[in-house]
């Protein structure tokens, strides 16, 4: 794009020169100075830290002028020195202006450019505005001391020092190490300054490599600016001469239930050729009393012979909830004749509930009609650091009905981070009323055994036969493009004068798989009240699809209610996007919400739109458009339709919007929303286990990207850091920002598409595996080849390439039917149950045709609107290009989408690709830390966060820009955790 613009400018300049030849010589040509920007806005800047911006001076006149100099009226603003220069017609030159605030607060002034340009003032001065605001920068370091413990001479121990920028400005940070034994401590981050963005934190790696016996002391100084007092962290360690192997050196029992006992083994081996003295073990710093030595060996003659192995067993039995203060187990083993201290093993643990959680507790069936049954699930969530065994399930009925285990109670292994389901059925006894039972589960976690109990309750009630109506009896989804999804509602309304018991609604077995719905819970319908099942239709191919929605009510002969479901998958040149509009929660006192639809007629000829209508809860939705029916839509045209949602009452609303093309079957868009009266909102989430993640890289294949592609490919191991640590099942694919084949020139692109992948995974010719998985041989080499996409293209359209890669026909087909290449489709990459992570790499802005909001809606639609399963990250040109001169432009569209989805934004000029990719890896493969709120809090200071029912007051922040709650990396909820966020809402 950059080169194309210069070609156009050159052509225009040549035309101007030609015209200029005919200008009458009696007319004096004038010069004209134009500055961009006209006002230099430095924004927030850290006190004592310089911030530089560039001002472009352009001669838009026809005569030359001279710039003699430039000065600022503010003492803390300076122009980098330059020699006077002449600007001819059309010429331009950049000046660098530096702002170094001395104190906090706003400053405003002028930048005076001394020039003889005709449009300058009489005094020969052109005035530009300058403004900025000084903000105090500092970093937060919570650790005051780092103790490396005993480390064998010549070996290296590594610890982390976490620094965080809690301010509103970027903070430069510099780590220096000094002290009496500074030569034994080190860090790859020391000596060179780096920058922390607002709210960003970084874990600095500190190392201790003892060269001398005995204790060592050092200091880590974390500084922000030359005049700021640094934060000092004390470093300590001890060098020991030992040929011992102690495994492990750190025993973390994890979370252990109160009253339970966990045991671990510590193995000591003498790997040397000389005997060592053995004096047993000592338990130190055991303030809590929760740790104990279960067994320690008695060694003959108190001598550990060469090659000998001994084992120590330690136990942990917490008596109080919460983390237990760390204890140490000292091993009294050393070379004969020496007095060096023996190694110490750190002991850690946490008391509380078991790391296996059963929820809900209690399991409350509510009211169930006598003569009917209800089934609900207990979720068994494994938050331990290892697999556990669920065994000896028992359900003991106490009173009031029959409580049954739906499945036979068998031993059930639950992998780390995964969830198992225990279905329980309740059948009330006639005339008894309330019922109560207990679910008892025995859990085996390594060497720890605990028992969990869940209370189960329900109430039986006699209901009069239910009088109901299914609304509608047949749900017609109409035409839906293959791969798109439409949500419509099946309603059950109580039309009688007494209560109805509805035993849930669902999609019936045997229905086509294109129909999905989340099963509704059991409920009691008051007279006139309605319950909705939101049915989703997502055709995977062309053709007719049918299904049944079903439910049960209390009626002796008509208790099984059904509704027919029908839809058609189509592929054609007419479409409407998005096919679902979810207005979310709307307060009745806050006025309507408005959304937009785009109608595409990509046909070669005109298409006639016969009509546009609504059915369902049509009174809550209003459509505005400029159509006059019959409306002829021109070939390759785009039209826009606005939909307004203004709920008339409290509760869920759903409608179908029908686009009638006169073919007998309309194209359908689903409309859903919920009206509420309350002044407080609670958003509920369940932390994903992240067992599967699909990752798509968008790699710029323009002429300036050669080094960046190589850096990306060479640091694949850094990107997989968190995937390897958590055992994630990943799919990784690459496509380019090019949609059309390169026209040729000085460079060609490999892969078989000549730079025009058009969303197809690279390489299109299948010269290497196009989808990388944990079983791909030499995955790092494959990724390096797949990211070496070439440098032949000039029209960067990364977001559109992403859309085409994950949309029909590519996403569902092994082969792209539109191209001559074979097996060039993207089938097999996108998994419905997996999290989707998209990562863009570009030094240029995105030039895709649709607004960023379109691509955000598309990504969310792939995951049913679940924001926790979608993240977009970007390594692009920053907003301030002065810190990245080699970027052609800022990737503002990529940055916007990353911010909207809680992704990571890194500078394309990053000096540390491994560090940048590790951050993106944590975001893609680590636990979800970003939770988007459904509404905007009226007072963020009143946000209440609960994780598994326990209020969490620290370790998270509210981001106003994205309306999300973001946890720190150390405090992110574990897999399976329930997260409740409550806050006041306004309009």
Could you describe the largest sheet, including whether it forms a barrel? 5 strands, mixed
Work out the oligomeric state of the chains in this entry.
single chain
From the spread of the alpha carbons, the general shape counts as: globular
Question: What value does the Rg take, in angstroms?
Answer: 34 Å
Widest sheet, order of strands: 2-9-8-4-6
Annotation, overall tally of beta strands: 67
Helical stretch count?
A: 9
What attributes does this structure have?
single chain, 987 residues, mainly beta, five-stranded mixed beta sheet, 9 helices, 67 strands, disordered N terminus
Task: Give an overview in words.
The structure is a single chain. This protein has nine helices and 67 strands. A five-stranded mixed beta sheet has the order 2-9-8-4-6, with no helix packed on it. It has a five-stranded mixed beta sheet with strand order 11-18-17-13-15, with no helix packed on it. Helix 2 runs antiparallel to helix 5 (779-787) and helix 7 (852-862) runs parallel beside helix 8 (892-900). With 987 residues, it is mainly beta. The longest helix is centred in the first third of the chain and has 19 residues, at 2-20.
């Amino acid at each position: 794009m950059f080169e194309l613009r210069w070609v156009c400018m050159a052509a225009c300049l040549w035309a101007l020169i030609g015209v200029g030849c005919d200008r009458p010589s009696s007319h004096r040509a004038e010069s004209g100075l134009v500055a961009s920007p006209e006002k230099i806005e430095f924004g927030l800047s850290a006190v004592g830290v310089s911030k530089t911006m560039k001002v472009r001076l352009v001669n838009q006149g026809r005569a030359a002028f001279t710039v003699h100099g430039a000065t600022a009226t503010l003492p803390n603003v300076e122009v980098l020195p330059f020699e006077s220069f002449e600007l001819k017609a059309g010429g331009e030159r950049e000046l660098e202006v530096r702002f170094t605030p001395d104190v906090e607060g706003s400053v405003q002034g002028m930048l005076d450019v001394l020039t003889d340009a005709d449009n300058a003032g009489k005094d020969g001065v052109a005035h530009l505005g300058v403004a900025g605001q000084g903000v105090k920068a500092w970093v937060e370091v919570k650790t005051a001391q780092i103790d490396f413990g005993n480390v064998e001479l010549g070996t290296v121990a590594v610890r982390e020092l976490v620094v965080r920028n809690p301010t509103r400005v970027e903070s430069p940070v510099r780590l220096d190490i000094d002290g009496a034994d500074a030569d034994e401590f080190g860090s790859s981050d020391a000596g060179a300054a780096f920058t922390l963005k607002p709210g960003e934190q970084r874990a600095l790696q500190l190392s201790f490599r003892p060269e001398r016996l005995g204790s060592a002391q050092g200091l880590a100084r974390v500084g922000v600016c030359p005049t700021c007092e640094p934060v000092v962290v004390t470093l300590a360690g001890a060098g020991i001469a030992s040929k011992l192997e102690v495994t492990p050196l750190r025993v973390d029992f994890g979370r252990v239930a109160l009253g339970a006992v966990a045991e671990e083994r510590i193995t000591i081996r003498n790997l040397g050729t000389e005997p060592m003295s053995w004096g047993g073990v000592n338990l130190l710093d055991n303030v809590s009393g929760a740790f104990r030595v279960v067994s320690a060996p008695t060694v003959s003659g108190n001598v550990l012979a060469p090659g000998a192995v001994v084992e120590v067993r330690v136990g942990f039995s917490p008596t109080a909830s919460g983390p237990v203060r760390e204890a140490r187990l000292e091993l009294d083993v050393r070379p004969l004749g020496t007095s060096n201290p023996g190694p110490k093993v750190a002991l850690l643990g946490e008391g509380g509930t078991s790391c296996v959680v059963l929820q809900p507790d209690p399991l409350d069936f509510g009211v169930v009609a006598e003569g009917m049954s209800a089934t609900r699930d207990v979720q068994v969530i494994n938050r331990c650091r290892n697999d556990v065994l669920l065994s000896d399930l028992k359900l003991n009925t106490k009173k009031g009905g029959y409580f049954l285990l739906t499945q036979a109670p068998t031993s059930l292994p639950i992998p780390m981070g995964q969830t198992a389901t225990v279905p329980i059925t309740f059948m009330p006894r006639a005339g008894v009323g309330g019922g109560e039972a207990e679910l008892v589960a025995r859990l085996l976690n390594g060497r720890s055994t605990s028992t969990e109990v869940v209370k189960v309750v329900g109430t039986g009630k006699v209901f009069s036969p239910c009088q109901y109506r299914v609304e509608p009896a047949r749900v017609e989804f109409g035409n839906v493009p293959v791969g798109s999804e439409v949500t419509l509602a099946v309603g059950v309304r109580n039309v009688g004068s007494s209560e109805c018991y509805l035993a849930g609604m669902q999609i019936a077995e045997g229905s086509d798989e294109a129909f999905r719905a989340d099963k509704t819970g059991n409920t009691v319908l008051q007279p006139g009240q309605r319950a909705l099942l939101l049915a989703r239709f997502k055709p995977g191919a062309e053709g007719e699809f049918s299904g049944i929605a079903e439910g049960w009510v209390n009626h002796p002969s008509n208790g099984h209610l059904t509704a027919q479901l029908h839809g058609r998958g189509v592929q054609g040149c007419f479409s409407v996007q998005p096919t679902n509009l979810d207005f979310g929660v709307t307060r009745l006192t806050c006025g309507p919400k408005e959304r937009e639809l785009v109608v595409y007629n990509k046909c070669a000829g005109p298409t006639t739109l016969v009509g546009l209508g609504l059915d369902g809860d049509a009174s809550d939705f209003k459509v505005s458009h400029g159509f006059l029916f019959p409306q002829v839509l021109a070939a390759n045209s785009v039209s826009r339709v606005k939909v307004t949602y203004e709920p008339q009452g409290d509760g869920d609303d759903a409608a179908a919007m029908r686009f009638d093309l006169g073919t007998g079957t309309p194209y359908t868009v689903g409309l859903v929303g919920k009206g509420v009266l309350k002044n407080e909102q609670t958003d509920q989430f369940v932390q994903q286990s992240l067992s599967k993640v699909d990752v798509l890289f968008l790699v710029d294949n323009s002429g300036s990207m050669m080094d960046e592609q190589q850096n990306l490919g060479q640091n694949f191991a850094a990107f997989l850091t968190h995937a390897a640590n958590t055992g994630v099942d990943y799919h990784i694919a690459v496509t380019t920002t090019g949609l059309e084949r390169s026209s040729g020139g000085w460079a060609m692109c490999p892969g078989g598409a000549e730079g025009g992948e058009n969303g197809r995974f690279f390489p299109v010719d299948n010269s290497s595996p196009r989808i990388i998985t944990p079983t791909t041989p030499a995955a790092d080499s494959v990724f390096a080849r797949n990211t070496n996409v070439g440098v032949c293209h000039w029209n960067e359209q990364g977001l559109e390439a992403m859309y085409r890669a994950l949309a029909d026909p590519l996403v569902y087909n092994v082969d792209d039917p539109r191209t001559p290449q074979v097996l060039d489709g993207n089938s097999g990459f996108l998994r419905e149950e997996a999290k989707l992570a998209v990562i863009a790499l570009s030094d240029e802005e995105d030039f895709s045709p649709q607004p960023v909001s379109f691509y955000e809606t598309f990504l969310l639609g792939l995951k049913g609107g679940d924001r926790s399963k979608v993240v977009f990250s970007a390594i692009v040109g920053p907003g301030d290009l002065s810190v990245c001169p080699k970027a052609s432009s800022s990737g503002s569209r990529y940055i916007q989408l990353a911010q909207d989805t809680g992704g990571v934004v890194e500078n394309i000029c990053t000096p540390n690709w491994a560090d940048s990719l590790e951050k993106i890896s944590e975001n893609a493969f680590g636990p979800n830390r970003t939770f988007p709120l459904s509404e905007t809090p009226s007072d963020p200071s009143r946000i209440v966060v609960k994780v598994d029912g326990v209020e969490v007051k620290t370790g998270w922040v509210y981001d106003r820009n994205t309306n999300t709650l973001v946890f720190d990396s150390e405090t992110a909820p574990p897999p399976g955790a329930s997260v409740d966020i409550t806050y006041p809402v306004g309009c």
